[in-house]
Structure formats: structure tokens, C-alpha cells
């Protein structure tokens, strides 16, 4: 075809449409050849040319015809651009007689370009954590056979491959034959053969169960005569192959540069979709370019029964065909790969791959058990964990120590949390409960400047940072605006609970109590009409908050522990001594960071288990605690957390971890101060303030200035505490305001005796348990 004929037949509008570019009403658009925030390219339909007025553009000064535009857009030579222009003019069989592969390649390119003009497609991909600028994804709006693209050649080949279906009707408005587009309103992925040609297309509904979609509620669509693999055949030179259950999972992993460069990836078409073509491709990969290192298949199937069953089945098939293979599986913290990467930073998957569980290996180890005189072995759970790299192995060994909680507490101190021995351990246990289905919540209460915000922030530093969300404030509607799973499997840190308005507190209470927020909101449907929809936010997270008013929130939040900051002189001395040592350069910050990183490794090594406590009915809380029902549930929850952190040391019975008496003893010790707070009428800070007054004044009267001197509290906070103690009748107010009040202790309770009696009561019950056992 002559160049003049191409230019006369191929319009600039068709080229722009093919590349998904759309000028504005003034025929201007952002230039696709350089970074352009304001439209600098003018389209001239009369001359069928385009011109960029920006001096930063590589095309500046040149009026581009359709061939020039293709040449710059594809980085082609002039000859290649002419060939491409001919393909655009002849997408079907016509004069060019292009192959099925070339036709599907052209259509996939069209679908890729169509995303730029589709807001629903962009929103869907954003919600799924997929970036169309980093991986090849298309969108089928169902409009590819309209307008100037509609040719006999296109219609013929689209019908042949199944992209169009003949309705068997005539359009009464146009008098033309009617066609129904296949997989309308779906995102699209290319399936490729060994030569990396596009031989099939996979479509995933962006509308989920919209009944208007081909008259069904289907989510997955394949062209007829399906062939090809996603994203393509494995690279022969790679030693490790990641196998996912779904294409979206595989696409999610392709976005991670480190994985893309060091692994081959293949997606199955579901748990039963590892077909003959995929199996054959994997076998060829296994036998290609053998090295001293065994080739390894890494399963990343869904974290459900179907996924686990499929992994077991396919693993045995692979190992039967090639006993030298190494086979492993990644234990996902969420439902599937895509959800895991939606809810976590990309770095978590690097960690998960490092900690993958070995299922089959031909490497000899002393602890391994050979089967049937082959070189194939099956590793136990504990052995498989030990085959990980050095850091996870050390973390696992740490979790197997006898004095685990004591050593963990010392490690937390090495990480820079000074003093607060029982409180810091309790806060740590509360925080790691985000790994469980029923996470816990802690409210740290103390006076202004007592360090309550500091301690929750440092505890959060010990957690995998991809799982931590930190807020200084939360507005009334902000919690409703998160995505459905954005707060799922997270740790939330709220620096100032007192700063939240009632509507924000209400939303937080709902998430803590019921793990879900539901709101009725309006959205625009595909026709632009307002439509009511139920927006859901799921909130399976643990949380730590700081407040000066612990009593205010205690009754409003289920599963919330109140922890009082230690404001004693002894604790103050510890903190000051640490601060001075740090400023003198005597604290090795690198050692602190090593401790922090190691604790993060420990947390990542923990897996979720359900827990059975066989002693749950045999130990009772004292009768004089407030909210005994709620406290009992929290007490049992902490026992479960202590059992979970000992998971490498506890019996697993029918899939459940079994609590031991030692776990109950540790729970009593760790939770003791919180139980005292439940008994005490005064909250933590107020109790510490009152004990200082009792020690200093006994029977003497005193002024607020005297109280300020012995307690160290500032004027505003001190007056609040004095007024509260007067209200509760612990202090008597003497005199008149104009002359200055004096105060006298009117009720001197003996909290130490209460502590002693409670400790003895628990010890008696624990001794009885040991005797029975």
C-alpha cells in the first residue's frame, strides 16, 4: 500500500482512538511524548496532523501526520510505522490476511489504550491494587466495533475469535446487523504461547455480579479455543517459579520489581485449572539449563481449603514427574495474594517468600525422613521453618526458648522501651493480636507529659511497619472513607484519643466492637445517575490509644484494656538516666535498631491458631472487680495471646493450640495491674497522685501549692485531680475560694492490702490447678 493511500484512508482521529487519546473541545490534549500537565498538543483534523507547542517535546517544530505520530508513539522506524499503519487499516483478514495471533495482539493493544478513557476501569484497578502503567492490562468497554474502526474485516475476525456474537437481529435505527460484544465492561489480560505471541485473552468482570453483563453473574471470561499462558512461558534461566491460583494474583506479583527480575511466574486458571499446556511448560522449564541448584516451584495459592488441597495434589504430581524438584508454599496472612498486597506494603511478600514452607526437597539433612528409598522427603512444620534463611531461623529458635516472655521483655528493653516492665509486655501482646480473628485494644492513660504517647509509638515500632497505621487525629467521617479491606489485619495507633469528636469515637467503637462499619452513600452509575449503595469497611485490627481520661472510654469499648503509665519517681529516674546516656553517646542506636528488626522478624514468624484453654472454668476473678463479665473475657483473651506466642512450644490438638497452666500464671502476672485498676475506684494516674498525697500529708491539711510541690503536677492537671478526689470524697475541701482552699485526706483506703489479697487468691487457685494436673 502506498504512503499516500495510507494517509488518505487512515485518519488522525482513528490513530488517537487506537492509542486511547482524546482531545478536548478545543482539539487540544496533553502531549503523549513528554511530561505534560497542561495541553500543549493541537490536533488539526482538516490537515490530519498534530503539533506540539512545547519546547521540551522531542517532536517540537514538526507537524506530524499519522505515520509520524505512530513512529514517535511506538519508537518505530519509518518503515515499521508504515507497517503498523497498514495493520490499523486492515485489522481483519482483508488484503493483509493477518493471523489470529496478530489480530489478538492488535485488539489487546486497543484494550490497553482504552483504560486511559475509562474511569470505572481505573477505579476498579485502584481498588485491586493494580497499576496499568506497570503491567499489561486492558479494558473492554464493548465499543471496539463502533465508529471508524467498524470494518467488514474487523467484524469477521472478531466473530471468529469470539469477541463478538451475532444477535441475529437488525438494528431498527441504523438498519445494520446487530452484534453483542463478549466480556463487556471487563479488564483484560493477554495469554501467550511459547513464542510470546498473544493466543488468548482472559477477561475479569469489573462489575462483579452485574446481571446486565452478558445476562449472567459470571466473573471470568475466556475466548473460545482457549490457549496460552499468563503472563507467558517461564524463563529457562530462572531457578525459581512462582505458581499462583489466579491471574490477578500473578499480575499483582509482577508489579514487584525484585520478584519480576528473580523469578518466573505462571498463573493457573483456578484450583482445577492447571491444564496440560501449563504442566507441559513447567516440565520443559524443569529440564532446561540444569545447574547444581535444584529448580523450585513455589505455590502461592489461596489461603483456604480448596487452595491447600490443590497445592497438595499438584505437588505430588510434579514430584512424581521430577523427584529432583524442590517444592514449597507461601503461607499467606490474607485470603489470597492480591488481598495480601492490597493490605500490606510490597516488602511483606519478599519476607513471605523468605519464610516459605518447604513441602518437598531432594537435599539431605540429618533431621529429614526419606520415603520409599527416593531422594524426596517431606518435612515437618518445625523442620520446614528451620530451612528458611538465618534471620527467620533465629527468630524461630527464639520462640522455642523456655523463658520466652522474660527474654522477650528484655529484648523490648534493648529496643529502647525503658521501665514499664509489665505494661510494655501487655501492650506488646495486645498489639500482636492483630494477627487473630478477635484482636484486642489498649488505652494507655496518664497525665500530660507522662510518656503515654511515646510508649505506644515505640511498641508500634516493633511491629512490621507495613501493617501499622498511625493517626494524630481522626475526623468524623474518615473511618467511613477507607476501602473495604484497608483496615483489615492492621495495627492502628491513635496518639490522642481525647481529640476525637463523638462521631469519630462512635465509628471507632463500632469497628472495635463489631469489626464492621456500614454506611449508605450515593454514587453515580454507568449512566451518570445517582444511586444509593451500602459502603462497607471491615475493621479487623488491634489498636493502641493514649488519653488522660481512661475512665471516660473504658465502658464504651469492648476488648479494651486500660493501662496506666507508671508516673513514680523510680520510673522517672530510669527514663532520665536513659536520656542522659543516650545524649552522652553511651547508647548504641544500631543495637537498638537490631533489636527492633529482630522483634519484627519474631512477629512475622507467628501464625494464627485458634486456642483451647482446658482450665478456663477452673480459675475465677475476684468478685469485687468492676465489669466482671467484660474483664473475664479480656483475661481469657490474654491467656490465648500468651499461648499463641508460645506456639512452637504448645501441643496442637485437632488444629487447636492447647493452653498450659504456665500461660495462666503469666497472664495473671502481666494483667495484674490492669485487674487492680478494675477493682480500684480511682484510675491509674489519679491513684498514683493520691498515694503521693497520702505519703506526704497523712493527717495534715495542705494547699494546692503544697500538692504541686510533692507530686510534680502542673497547675491545670493538678486542679483537675484535686477536684476529682473531692468529688469522690477521698479529699475534704476546707475554707473559701477567695482565701484559697485547703485540703485534707478524708478517706484513706489500703490499696496495698487489696493487691496482696488478690495476689494470694490467684496463687491459691493456681496451686489447686497444679495439684489436679
From TrEMBL:
<dbReference type="InterPro" id="IPR036977">
    <property type="entry name" value="DNA_primase_Znf_CHC2"/>
</dbReference>
<dbReference type="InterPro" id="IPR027417">
    <property type="entry name" value="P-loop_NTPase"/>
</dbReference>
<dbReference type="GO" id="GO:0005737">
    <property type="term" value="C:cytoplasm"/>
</dbReference>
<feature type="domain" description="Zinc finger CHC2-type">
    <location>
        <begin position="27"/>
        <end position="86"/>
    </location>
</feature>
<keyword id="KW-0863">Zinc-finger</keyword>
<dbReference type="InterPro" id="IPR050219">
    <property type="entry name" value="DnaG_primase"/>
</dbReference>
<dbReference type="GO" id="GO:0006269">
    <property type="term" value="P:DNA replication, synthesis of primer"/>
</dbReference>
<dbReference type="GO" id="GO:0003899">
    <property type="term" value="F:DNA-directed RNA polymerase activity"/>
</dbReference>
<dbReference type="InterPro" id="IPR002694">
    <property type="entry name" value="Znf_CHC2"/>
</dbReference>
<keyword id="KW-0479">Metal-binding</keyword>
<dbReference type="Pfam" id="PF13155">
    <property type="entry name" value="Toprim_2"/>
</dbReference>
<protein>
    <submittedName>
        <fullName>DNA primase</fullName>
    </submittedName>
</protein>
<dbReference type="Pfam" id="PF01807">
    <property type="entry name" value="Zn_ribbon_DnaG"/>
</dbReference>
<dbReference type="InterPro" id="IPR037068">
    <property type="entry name" value="DNA_primase_core_N_sf"/>
</dbReference>
<keyword id="KW-0862">Zinc</keyword>
<dbReference type="GO" id="GO:0003677">
    <property type="term" value="F:DNA binding"/>
</dbReference>
<dbReference type="GO" id="GO:0008270">
    <property type="term" value="F:zinc ion binding"/>
</dbReference>
Amino acid at each position: 500500500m502506498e504512503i499516500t493511500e495510507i494517509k488518505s484512508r487512515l485518519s488522525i482521529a482513528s490513530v488517537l482512538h487506537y492509542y486511547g487519546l482524546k482531545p478536548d473541545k478545543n482539539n487540544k490534549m496533553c502531549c503523549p511524548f513528554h511530561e505534560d500537565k497542561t495541553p500543549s498538543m493541537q490536533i488539526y483534523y482538516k490537515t490530519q496532523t498534530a503539533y506540539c507547542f512545547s519546547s521540551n517535546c522531542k517532536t517540537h517544530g514538526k507537524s506530524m501526520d499519522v505515520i509520524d505520530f505512530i513512529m514517535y508513539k511506538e519508537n518505530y522506524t519509518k518503515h515499521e510505522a508504515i507497517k503498523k499503519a497498514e495493520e490499523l487499516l486492515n485489522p481483519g483478514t482483508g488484503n493483509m490476511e493477518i493471523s489470529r495471533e496478530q489480530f489478538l495482539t492488535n485488539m489487546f493493544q486497543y484494550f490497553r489504550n482504552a483504560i486511559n478513557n475509562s474511569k470505572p476501569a481505573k477505579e476498579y484497578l485502584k481498588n485491586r491494587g493494580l497499576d496499568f502503567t506497570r503491567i499489561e492490562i486492558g479494558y473492554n468497554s464493548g465499543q471496539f466495533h463502533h465508529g471508524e474502526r467498524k470494518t467488514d474485516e474487523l467484524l469477521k475476525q472478531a466473530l471468529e475469535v469470539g469477541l463478538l456474537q451475532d444477535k441475529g437481529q437488525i438494528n431498527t435505527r441504523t438498519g445494520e446487523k446487530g452484534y453483542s460484544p463478549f466480556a463487556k465492561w471487563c479488564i483484560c489480560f493477554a495469554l501467550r504461547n511459547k513464542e510470546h505471541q498473544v493466543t488468548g485473552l482472559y477477561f475479569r468482570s469489573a462489575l462483579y455480579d452485574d446481571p446486565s453483563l452478558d445476562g449472567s453473574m459470571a466473573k471470568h471470561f475466556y475466548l473460545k479455543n482457549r490457549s496460552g499462558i499468563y503472563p507467558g512461558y517461564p524463563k529457562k534461566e530462572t531457578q525459581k517459579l512462582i505458581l499462583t491460583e489466579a491471574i490477578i494474583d500473578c499480575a499483582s506479583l509482577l508489579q514487584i520489581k525484585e520478584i519480576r527480575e528473580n523469578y518466573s511466574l505462571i498463573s493457573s486458571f483456578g484450583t482445577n485449572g492447571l491444564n496440560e499446556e501449563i504442566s507441559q511448560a513447567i516440565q520443559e522449564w524443569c529440564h532446561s539449563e540444569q545447574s547444581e541448584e535444584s529448580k523450585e516451584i513455589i505455590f502461592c495459592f489461596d489461603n483456604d481449603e480448596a487452595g491447600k488441597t490443590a497445592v497438595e495434589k499438584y505437588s505430588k504430581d510434579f514430584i512424581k514427574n521430577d523427584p529432583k524438584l524442590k517444592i514449597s508454599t507461601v503461607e499467606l496472612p490474607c485470603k489470597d495474594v492480591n488481598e495480601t498486597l492490597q493490605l500490606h506494603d510490597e516488602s511483606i511478600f519478599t519476607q513471605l517468600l523468605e519464610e516459605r514452607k518447604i513441602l518437598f526437597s531432594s537435599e539431605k539433612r540429618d533431621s529429614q525422613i526419606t520415603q520409599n528409598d527416593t531422594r524426596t522427603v517431606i518435612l515437618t512444620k518445625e523442620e520446614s521453618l528451620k530451612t528458611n534463611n538465618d534471620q527467620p531461623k533465629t527468630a524461630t529458635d527464639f520462640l522455642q526458648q523456655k523463658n520466652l516472655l522474660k527474654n522477650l521483655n528484655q529484648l523490648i528493653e534493648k529496643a529502647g522501651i525503658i521501665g514499664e516492665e509489665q505494661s510494655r509486655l501487655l501492650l506488646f501482646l495486645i498489639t500482636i493480636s492483630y494477627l487473630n480473628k478477635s484482636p484486642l485494644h489498649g488505652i494507655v492513660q496518664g497525665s500530660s507529659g507522662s510518656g503515654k504517647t511515646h510508649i505506644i509509638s515505640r511498641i508500634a515500632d516493633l511491629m512490621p511497619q507495613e501493617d501499622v497505621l498511625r493517626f494524630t487525629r481522626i475526623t468524623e467521617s474518615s473511618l467511613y472513607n477507607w476501602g473495604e479491606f484497608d483496615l483489615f489485619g492492621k495495627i492502628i495507633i491513635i496518639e490522642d484519643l481525647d481529640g476525637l469528636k463523638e462521631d469519630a469515637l462512635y465509628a471507632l467503637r463500632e469497628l472495635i466492637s463489631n469489626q464492621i462499619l456500614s454506611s449508605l452513600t450515593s454514587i453515580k452509575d454507568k449512566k451518570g445517575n445517582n444511586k444509593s449503595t451500602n459502603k462497607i469497611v471491615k475493621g479487623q485490627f488491634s489498636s493502641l490509644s493514649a488519653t488522660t481520661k481512661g475512665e471516660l472510654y473504658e465502658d464504651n469499648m469492648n476488648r479494651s484494656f486500660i493501662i496506666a503509665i507508671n508516673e513514680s519517681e523510680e520510673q522517672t529516674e530510669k527514663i532520665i538516666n536513659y536520656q542522659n546516656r543516650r545524649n552522652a553517646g553511651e547508647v548504641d542506636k544500631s543495637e537498638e535498631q537490631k533489636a527492633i528488626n529482630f522483634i519484627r522478624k519474631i512477629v512475622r514468624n507467628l501464625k494464627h491458631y485458634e486456642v483451647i484453654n482446658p482450665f478456663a472454668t477452673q480459675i475465677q476473678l475476684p468478685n469485687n472487680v468492676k465489669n466482671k463479665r467484660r474483664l473475664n473475657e479480656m483475661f481469657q483473651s490474654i491467656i490465648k495471646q500468651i499461648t499463641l506466642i508460645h506456639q512452637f512450644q504448645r501441643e496442637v490438638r485437632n488444629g487447636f493450640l492447647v493452653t498450659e497452666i504456665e500461660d495462666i500464671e503469666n497472664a495473671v502476672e502481666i494483667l495484674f495491674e490492669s485487674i487492680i485498676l478494675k477493682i480500684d475506684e480511682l484510675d491509674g494516674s489519679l491513684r498514683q497522685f493520691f498515694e503521693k498525697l497520702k505519703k506526704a500529708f497523712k493527717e495534715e491539711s495542705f494547699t494546692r501549692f503544697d500538692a504541686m510541690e510533692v507530686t510534680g503536677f502542673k497547675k491545670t492537671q493538678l486542679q483537675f485531680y484535686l477536684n476529682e478526689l473531692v468529688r469522690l470524697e477521698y479529699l475534704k475541701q476546707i475554707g473559701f475560694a477567695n482565701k484559697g482552699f485547703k485540703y485534707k485526706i478524708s478517706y484513706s483506703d489500703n490499696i496495698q492490702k487489696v493487691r496482696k489479697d488478690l495476689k494470694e487468691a490467684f496463687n491459691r487457685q493456681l496451686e489447686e490447678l497444679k495439684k489436679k494436673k
